[in-house]
Amino acid sequence: MTIRLKVNGVEHELDVEPDAPLLWVIRDDIGLTGTKFGCGIAQCGACTVHVNGEAQRSCVTPVSSVEGMEITTIEGLGANGLTPVQQAWIEHQVPQCGYCQSGMIMAVSALLKANPHPTDDDLANAITNICRCGTYPRIRAAVRDLAKA
Amino acid sequence: MVATRRMVLFGGLGAAGALVVGYALWPNGRIARLDKLDAKPGEKFVANWIKIGQDDTVTIVVPHCDMGTGIYTALSQMAAEELDADWSKVRAEAAPADTDFANGAMIEGFALNGMQVPAMLKGLAANTFRFVAAEITIPGAGYAPQITGGSAAVRFTGVNAMRVAGAATREMLVKAAAARWDVPASECTTAHNKVLHTASGRSLGYGALAGDAASYSPSSNPPLKPKSQYTLVGKSIPRVDIPQKVNGTTDYGLDTKLPGMMYAAVRISPVFGGKLKAVSIGDVANRRGVHKIVKLDDAIIVVADRFWRARDGAATLHPVFDNASNGTVTSADITATRVRALNGDGLKSDLKTGSGEDALSQGKLVEATYHVPYLAHAAMEPVNATALYRADGTLEVWAGSQDGLSARNYCAEVAGLSLDKVTFHLRPLGGAFGRRLPGHYNFLEYAVKTAMAVPGTPVKLIFTREDDVQHDYYRPNVMSRFRAALDTKGMPVAWVNDYAGDEGANPEAHIVYGIPNQAIRAMQVKTHVPTGPWRSVEASWHGFFIESFVDELAHAAKADPVAYRLALLKDAPRHRAVLKTAAARAGWGQPLAPGKARGVAIFESFQTIVAHVVEITVSPDGTVKVDRVVSAVDCGNAVNPDGLKAQIEGGIIYGLSAALYGTITIDKGAVVQANFPDYEVIRIADCPQIDITIVESDAPLGGAGEPGVPPIAPAVVNAIFAATGRRIRELPVRLSNLSSSKKAASL
Ligand code: FES
Ligand code: FES
After folding, report:
1. Mutation target vs A (from B67, B256, B263, B308; most A CBs, 10 A cutoff)
2. For A74, which of B248, B465, B682 is closest by C-beta distance?
3. CB distance A93–B642 less than 8 Å?
4. SS3 content of chain B, % helix, strand, coil (to 5)
5. What contacts B577, CB < 8 A, 6 or more positions away?
6. How many CB atoms sit inside 10 A of residue A18's CB?
7. Domains in chain A and their CATH numbers?
8. What is the spatial distance between Cα B730 and Cα B126, in angstroms, rounded to a whole number?
C-alpha cells in the first residue's frame, strides 16, 4: 500500500506497511540516517523527530499515523545553516560520541519553541532523552544560555 | 612483560619523492606501502601519524577509534604542538585497519612503564599474532595494536608517538629549509606551518618543503618543547568532531549504506553457550521482504530487505536452544559461588606486607563484605556491523570497534580467510565503554556468518537494544571482604582483603594508604556469563570496595573521613592535594540543610587521581537524589582541559547510573533485563550539578576517559551513610530500602 510522507518539505510516496515504524522508514527507505535507533520502545529519544513541530519518538510511530503531516529530521532542522540550538551545542562542546545528539537537539528545539525560557526544572521534565556519554551538564548549560536569549 | 624489540624512528625517500618519517620495526619497504595504503593524491606520509598535503594541510592519522572521548583532537594537538603546525590546517582521520598502522607506541607504553599488559589486550585472534609476531612480541600476551581502551590513547600514543613524530618532522623540515637558503639550521625557527629565517625575512611553507626534507634522517630523540612554550597543548581547543555531531552527519556503523543492502536481525540463545536445537519457521520465510533465514550454531538470523521486517520476522520465530546445562542458573547461585570462595581455601595470595593477616590481632577488628553485580555497557548505539562477502572470496566489513585491526583479523578468522582478503572499515562509535574491545565481537561474528550465507549481498546486522543488553560481555560480579585492625588512635595497623569474582587478582586492589601490614588474596570464580572490560575495568569495583571500607574505618575511628584519609596519605602528596582541593571546593565540614549529607572518595586509576565529594538528599521515602558532585582531578598536565572535564563528567554520570540503578541479574541461565525500563540510567532530571577542578602536577600524563568512574559509587554510599546511618555494601543503591532507616524516617 502507498504511504505519503512529507519529510523536510519533500514528498515521498512509499510502498510500505501502514504499521512500519517511522524511524526505519526515514532511515532505510528515505535514506536519512541522522535519526538514530537506541531502544525501539520510546524510552531513549535517540529517534526524536518533529511531527507538525512537536517532538515525537519515531521508533514507535506507525507511518500511517503521520501521513500528510510535516515531518522534520535533524537533516531538515539545520537545512538553512546551524540553528541557535546547534550553535549552542558547539559553543558548550556538548557531544561526546554524538549518537544521542540528533534526538537531543530535536527534543530541545521543540521544547524551546513551546517554552522559549525554560528553567532547569522545565528542561528536566521535558527532556527524558538518554545520553550514555553523560553530556547532560553541558546540555543544561547550553539550554540556560538559550533560555536567556 | 617486555617488548623484545623497540620501535625506532626512521625516515627516507618514499614513493614519488616524498619525505617519510615514522615509527617502524622493519623500515624497508614500509614507506611505499604506507603511501599506497592511505595517501590520497597530493598527500605524502611524513610520519606514520602525520601526512602533509601539497596544500599545506597537516593530517594526523590516528591509530584509534573515535568513541566520543575527544582523542582525535587531543592527539592532533600533541602532534601539531611539536610540529608548530597551523591549527587551522590540521585535520584528523582514522588510520586504516592495517598492520602498518599498528600502534606499537601504546604497547611500548605499557612495557616502558613496567606495567602488566592489561587483560583486555590478551586473548586475541591467532591471526593477528602471527601477522605481527615479527614486529613486537610480548611474551604470553596477545596483541591489539590499534586498541582504544585503558584510557591510554593520549598518555601512550600521544606521549610516545604523536609528540615525537611531530618534533622529528619539524626538525627535518627545518633542515630542508636551511639547506635551500644556505643558512645554518640553528638560525631557522618554525611557526604556523612555516619555516622562518628571520634575519633574511624569508619563509617557506611545510607543504613546499616536505619533498626536500626526505633526504634527512630523523633524529631518534628529537628535542621536545618545554611546557612553557606550548601554544596548543593545555588549551581547550574545540573538538574537531563536534560540528558533524550536531547536524547528524557523523557516519556511525549503523549508518552504513550500500547498494542492494539487506538487513539482519538475530535471535541468540538466551542462555549463554546454548545451541540451536530446532526451530519452527512457520510462515516467516513467506513474510514480505524476508530474503533468507540463516541457522547458526547458537542463533537464528532473519535477513530481509528492511530492518523492521527482519526484526519482526525474527521475533515471530520459535527457536529451541539446548541450554548447555546452564538453564537453571540464577543470580543467587552466582552469589553463592562468591560466598563459598571467600570462605573456602582457594584464595591465592596476591600481596603481603609486614606480618600481613597476623597483625589483625594488634587492634580493634573492623569487618565488612561488599558485592557488585554484573553490568551491561548499554552504549547508545546498539552494536551492529555491515558485511559483504563476494563470490571471489573477499570480505568487506563496516563497523565500530575499539580496535580496527583486531576486528579485521577477527572477521578473517570467522570467515576462514587470509587477512589480505579482508577489508575492515572502522566507523565512528556511538559509545563503547569497553563493549567493542577485542575479544568481544559477537556482533562481527554474526554479521560475517550472515554475509557468507548470502554471497554478493551486503547485510547490515543490528542488535536490538534487547539483544545488546542480553548478549553483552558484562562487568564482572565481584564480592570483596575486608578486615582491618585499628590501633588505639583508630588508625589501621592491618588491612586484609579477600575477593572473588569472574577475574583473579587485580593490581587495582592495592591501596595507596600507608598501612604497615597488608594481605590481599583473590580467587577467580567463573560462571557461564561472559564478562569483559567496562569503563574503568577493575577499578570500577575495587574503587567502590576500598573507598567504602576506608570510610567505614574513619567512622569506626570517629574521625572525619577527609582528615582520616589525609592522615593515611602522608606519603602521597598528589593524592593529598587532590583530596584537599575537592574538599575545600565542596565546603567539606560546613553545615548542610536537613536531609542532605556529603560523602567523599578518592581513587587513582590509569595514572590519574580523582576525588569526588557528593552532596545528596535522602527523602523520607528513602529516595536518594545526588544534588552535586565536586571533583578534583590530577592527570599530570591536561592536554585539553575542557576535554578532560567532559570525560570526568561522563565518567561521573556513567558511574552514577551503575551505582544507583545498574544491575544485570540472571534467571534460568539468561539475563533478566532487556531495555532501558529495567536497565535504568541517569537522565537530565537526576543528573547532579558537577563542578570539576583540574589540579596540575608534573606527573606523567594520566588517562581521562575512565578515572572519573571509580570514586563516584563509594562517594555516594558514603554520603548515604552520613545521611542515614545506613551502610550500603551491595550495589546498586536502589535495591536498598532506605525509608526504614531511623534518620531518614525522622526527616
Ligand atoms: S529509539 Fe525511539 S525512543 Fe529510543
Ligand atoms: S553523546 Fe554519546 S550518547 Fe550522548
Report:
1. B308
2. B248
3. yes
4. 35, 25, 40
5. B634, B695, B697
6. 11
7. 2-77 (3.10.20.30), 84-148 (1.10.150.120)
8. 39
Write the CB contacts of B708 (distance below 8 Å, at least 6 apart in sequence): B610, B612, B631, B633, B647, B648, B649, B650, B651, B652, B655
Task: Answer yes or no: are the C-beta atoms of B615 and B568 closer than 8 Å.
Answer: no
Instruction: Report d(CA B725, CA B301) in Å as an integer.
Output: 52
Nearby residues of B317 by Cβ (< 8 Å), 6 or more positions away = B267, B279, B280, B281, B282, B284, B293, B300, B302
Distance CA A13, CA B144 (A): 48
Quickly list DSSP for B124-163: --HHHHHHHTTT---TT----TT---TT-IIIIIIIIIIH
Ranges of each domain in chain B: 5-244, 253-324+383-462, 333-374+474-735
Name the percent of chain A in helix, strand, coil, to the closest 5: 40, 15, 40
Task: Tell me the pLDDT of chain A (149 aa) as tens digits.
Answer: 799 999 999 999 999 999 999 999 999 999 999 999 999 999 999 999 999 999 999 999 999 999 999 999 999 998 889 999 999 999 999 999 999 999 999 999 999 999 999 999 999 999 999 999 999 999 999 999 999 98
- Tell me the fold of B253-324+383-462: Aldehyde Oxidoreductase; domain 4 (3.30.365)
What ipTM, to 2 d.p.? 0.98
Residue among B237, B244, B380, B644 with most chain A CBs within 10 A, to mutate: B380
Phi-psi region of B610 (alpha: psi -120 to 50; beta: other; left: phi over 0): beta
CA–CA separation, B484 and B497 (whole Å): 9
